[in-house]
């Protein structure tokens, strides 16, 4: 079920330079939302910009009827969004998209986020924590000051590993390199050390396309499986305009197109065809 809602802004805070957390009063959306879904947000009160902007659902508080978005100012639409104040109204369409699959068993779960990719994964990790399922969360950014949600994710009970490009904290290098190093550790799935056994697990990824491409390769090379949330520019957000097409394997050695807004944004690692 997706809805068009004129949601009231509860509050908006700048959590880091150019990054905002926007809380909206939208009880029906909060009730229906699942991790990995997104809202298609009308960023201004005029026809400029004309198109809505897709922003992932970062977290919901179903009791309060609130939905939060966490976003980076990338251009005109998000810059307009960042000016909203408590009491303002914002037109949102959603929740849209398929969302992440919650694990059914007790497998090792890894969440790998690059930069603002942590936004939808936080909602997923919150739901996972509610199921008493702990994950290993790998967060990457250019520098320590640009890592978001580290303490909030630790507070959910998950293990957090960090990677920064400049080495200011955690692994010096990319979050995918860190995942690759970690995935090669000989640890039994129940946590006991066993040098003869390889780790296995299911990976949830979100971040820039270049990072996700590398992550999908690392997941496959290490014999893991998983799913990634793709980003494409969107028009309608509901499957009608085909502007958000991506390529997935067709099972016969070729590919077919799917719509990121309707068939995704979450796709199995094994299915995505990268350019
Ligand atoms: C399903 C989905 C969920 C998303 N969730 C979030 C989120 O939670 N937080 C967040 O900060 N961003 C998220 N994005 C990206 C966000 O939609 C774009 O940053 C936003 O639309 C940019 O709009 P703008 O008007 O500010 O910038 P524009 O002026 O439209 O573009 C500025 C720059 O961003 C690039 N860009 C614009 N849209 C996209 C896009 N969809 N994918 C990749 N690059 C783009 C443009 O090529 C340009 O270089 C998500 C995108 C998708 C598809
Ligand atoms: S944005 Fe129109 S089909 Fe996906």
TrEMBL record:
Database matches in InterPro entries: Cbr1-like_FAD-bd_dom, Cyt_c3_hydrogenase_gsu, Dihydroorotate_DH_ele_sf, Dihydroorotate_DH_Fe-S-bd, Dihydroorotate_DHASE_ETsu, FAD-bd_FR_type, FNR_nucleotide-bd, PyrK_electron_transfer
Superkingdom of origin organism: Bacteria
Domain FAD-binding FR-type: 2-102
GO molecular function: 2 iron, 2 sulfur cluster binding; electron transfer activity; flavin adenine dinucleotide binding; metal ion binding; oxidoreductase activity
UniProt remark on cofactor binding: Binds 1 [2Fe-2S] cluster per subunit. Binds 1 FAD per subunit.
Cofactor(s) the record lists: [2Fe-2S] cluster; FAD
Entry binding sites for FAD: 53-56, 70-72, 77-78
Record keyword Lipid metabolism present: no
Keywords: 2Fe-2S, Electron transport, FAD, Flavoprotein, Iron, Iron-sulfur, Metal-binding, Pyrimidine biosynthesis, Transport
Pathway: Pyrimidine metabolism; UMP biosynthesis via de novo pathway; orotate from (S)-dihydroorotate (NAD(+) route): step 1/1
PROSITE patterns for the chain: FAD_FR (PS51384)
GO terms under biological process: 'de novo' UMP biosynthetic process
Binding-site list for [2Fe-2S] cluster: 236, 241, 244, 261
Function (record text): Responsible for channeling the electrons from the oxidation of dihydroorotate from the FMN redox center in the PyrD type B subunit to the ultimate electron acceptor NAD(+).
Family listed: Belongs to the PyrK family.
Quaternary state and interactors: Heterotetramer of 2 PyrK and 2 PyrD type B subunits.
UniProt name for this protein: Dihydroorotate dehydrogenase B (NAD(+)), electron transfer subunit
Organism (species): Pelotomaculum propionicicum
């Amino acid at each position: 079920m997706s809805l068009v809602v004129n949601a009231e802004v509860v509050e908006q805070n700048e959590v880091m330079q150019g990054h905002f957390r926007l809380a909206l009063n939208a009880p029906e959306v909060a009730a229906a939302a699942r991790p990995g879904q997104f809202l298609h947000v009308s960023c201004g009160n005029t026809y400029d910009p004309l198109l809505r902007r897709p922003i992932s659902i970062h977290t919901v508080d179903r009791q309060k009827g609130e939905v939060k978005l966490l976003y980076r100012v990338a251009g005109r639409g998000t810059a307009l969004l960042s000016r909203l104040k408590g009491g303002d109204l914002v037109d949102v369409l959603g929740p849209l998209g398929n969302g992440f699959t919650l694990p059914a068993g007790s497998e090792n779960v890894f969440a790998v986020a690059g930069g603002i990719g942590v936004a939808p994964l936080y909602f997923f990790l919150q739901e996972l924590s509610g199921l008493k399922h702990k994950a290993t969360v790998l967060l990457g950014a250019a520098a320590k000051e640009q890592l978001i949600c580290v303490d909030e994710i630790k507070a959910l009970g998950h293990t957090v590993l960090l990677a920064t490009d400049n080495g200011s904290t955690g692994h010096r290098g990319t979050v995918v390199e860190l995942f690759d190093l970690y995935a090669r550790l000989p640890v039994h799935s129940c946590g006991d050390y066993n040098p003869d056994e390889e780790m296995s697990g299911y990976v949830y990824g979100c971040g820039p396309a270049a990072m996700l491409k590398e992550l999908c390769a690392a997941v496959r090379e290490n014999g893991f499986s998983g799913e990634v949330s793709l980003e494409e520019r969107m028009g309608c957000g509901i499957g009608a305009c085909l502007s958000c097409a991506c390529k997935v394997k067709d099972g016969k050695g070729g590919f077919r197109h799917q719509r990121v807004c309707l068939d995704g944004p979450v796709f199995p690692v094994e299915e995505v065809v990268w350019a």
